[in-house]
Amino acid sequence: MLAAAFLAGLAAICSAVALPGAITRREISKASIESPTTLSPGAIKFMSPSNRTRSTLDRRDDDPYWPYSHCGCNYTLNHKDTDEAVKGLTEQLKSRPRFAGTSIYAISGTTVAFLCRWKSTNTEQLTLGIVKPLLPIINDRCGPYVAGSVAGTFPNKDAGAGYGFWLGYMRFYPGTGVDFCKAASLSKDRTCSTGLQSTSHSSS
Q1: Would you indicate the residue range of the signal peptide (predicted)?
Q2: What does the pLDDT look like over 56-103, one tens digit per residue?
Q3: From CA 37, how far away is CA 101, in angstroms rounded?
Q4: Cα distances (Å, whole numbers) of residue 69 to 57, 66, 147, 203
Q5: How far apart are CA 131 and CA 124, in angstroms?
Q6: How many beta carbons lie within 10 A of that of residue 146, not counting itself?
Q7: pLDDT by residue (tens digit) across 93-134?
Q8: How far apart are CA 21 and CA 129, in angstroms?
């Protein structure tokens, strides 16, 4: 009931775009698309933060909440589907010299992983090296296999001018009419109690 109500609210806000016919719930998409697709709040593969140093991605103008994150705290994800969707997304970034579309995504089972530019006029090169350091931040803030997204920016570019993107994962609901690029920033929750960051703070 909670998931249905949340999806209904998102569907009223977001515009629907039909998924390409080649994509099914059991496939990982390899296609780049120029506009967002259909779906709901959701998911990604998680990496432990224990062996990484604090990156400049973790702060912006001394703002402790940068990069901005949005968590679907009530939406846990299937582990296998999430791992495969995230792998499918990162493989797309490996296989091309630059990502110049508006958004790309990968679907596996019940999870979609996505990468969406803030503005269609932003065609800066987006590589795996820029994206990969953000994945552990979603894990830290939202928790392992919890739907979430995080804001990313381009080196030496002004995020205020639209040079940014959303990276995240969420549950995949075929035919719901939800635009995941818009849904990426709808949740008001910046963190969840399941987040590794919250757990480490509460135990210290």
Answers
A1: 1-16
A2: 344 444 554 567 888 999 899 999 999 999 999 998 888 665 666 678
A3: 13
A4: 12, 8, 11, 22
A5: 13
A6: 27
A7: 886 656 666 788 899 999 999 988 888 777 777 788 888 889
A8: 31
